[in-house]
Amino acid sequence: MGARLSVVMIAKNAAALLPDCLASVTWADEIVLLDSGSSDETVAIATAAGAKVFTDSHWQGYGIQRQRAQQQATGDYILMIDTDERVTPELAQAIRQVLESPDPQAVYSIARRNLFLGRFMRHSGWYPDRVTRLYARERYRYNDNQVHESLDAPGARVVPLQGDLLHLTCRDFAGFQRKQLSYATAWAQERHQKGKKVSVAGIFGHTLAAFCKTLILRAGVLDGRQGWLLAVVNAQYTFNKYTELWALNRGYTEK
After folding, report:
1. Where on the tree of life does the source sit, at the highest rank (predicted)?
2. DSSP state of 53
3. Do 13 and 112 reside in the same domain of the chain?
4. Claim to verify: residue 113 and residue 158 sit in the same structural domain
């Protein structure tokens, strides 16, 4: 008998995305969803699909929220996904093979195919965009980062899995921009608390570097119009991060 799998996700107001996400993991032994205070049908949809639903609206960042969600799981292994992601059949098969012969000292990375303005990107740093999402529940957990959280697994052997995880990153550009701005704010606050400083020259240096890295070093130009647009978006996000940090460094914040 193989290891049991808990699919774990955190959510808020994800009713439009959740059905397809849940449908892609019906084969799992358990689905756990931690809701952070939805006002739409997120909880009802997850419950109807057979997921174990919990609520915790005391938001302290993505890392800690993922830790809380993992605490509700009972499987031997965790597959951590987001509501805007879908597990492809090829990836599901690769995960099943891991569960048949588990190695608790290994963690498993998954290639994400990211959607940006109607195109699944193949370059631009957005593919394969490997993320470590499959791991033994009792050995590993996520770090405390407010944003850009990652699995805390020092010394673990990272094994790449076959198959892609579809990520509907940017379906609605205005919504994507709002999310990016909130990430930039959280990033700046976290770095400011750790004593990080930045100058005006640093702001523009990081911004230009982000544009060139996406378009040239990561071959964004091969993604066509979306590659050029993503290079600008990444530069804008970088500009917002460092400008907000600069403002925090100097006390230019709302009292």
Report:
1. Bacteria
2. E
3. yes
4. yes
